[in-house]
Request: fold
Amino acid sequence: MSKQDIEGVVLEYHSGIIPPPYSHVFRLSLDWSKESLRASLELHYTDREDLTEEEIIEEGFTLSDDYQFNGDLDETWKKPVLELLDQTRYASRVEGEGELTVATTEKGKTSPFKSPSNQEAWQLLAQDLIQAIYETAKKENPLQINFRLVDHDHVQDASIQLQFAHRKVIYEHDGQSDTLNWEYAFQLMKLIFTPDYDYDLAKESPGKKRGIYLDCGDGLWHELGKGVINIDPNFDAIGQIEKHFRNLLES
Reply:
């Protein structure tokens, strides 16, 4: 089957032995056989029957986390799906639990589900697509990172917003707006969430003294080196974050 023949994909996932309230299953389908990119999502959290409401809420969930969606997605998502399909080889066995399986559609027919060997890449793409659906449906807002660099008396404020709905990254600085490369910004976000953040030291507003301050999207500000701590002694995530921020401000 060539890429030109493929009209869509279907992804199915079972979280396996992960305990509730985290355990879940989903079925996500994309169809680009017509003029638009049509998406369908059915997500269900499993095995919560023996948990109390308090136990579910304490883990950051709600009592109504199941979700369904049928609608159009931005067509920019078609390209990364096709590119990953082109890179994918499949395992000889499908375990079913703890993995994601992939099927393709051609002329309205769905192929058998297969287990991709590049599991992590497919699971990450599925998470991105689900986030795009949430933003498209206005269930969630785009992630926005705000940061401030204070050098002596010079204050520079900037923000990076990841718009999954449009697979676009908006960078704002000095009243100017620009776009960043998606993969670069995505790797930067992973870097930002690598250290440990001490919320006991977080502030409601950024500092004015010399330093770098960071709001990870929840409205609370952390100072690099004080309220942000490297977890891995062999990897200076804080230094890398500072380097990227300075490069962005100088660009």
About this structure: DSSP finds five helices and 14 strands in the chain. The longest strand covers residues 154-163. The CA atoms of residues 43 and 67 lie 5 Å apart. The mean pLDDT is 94.
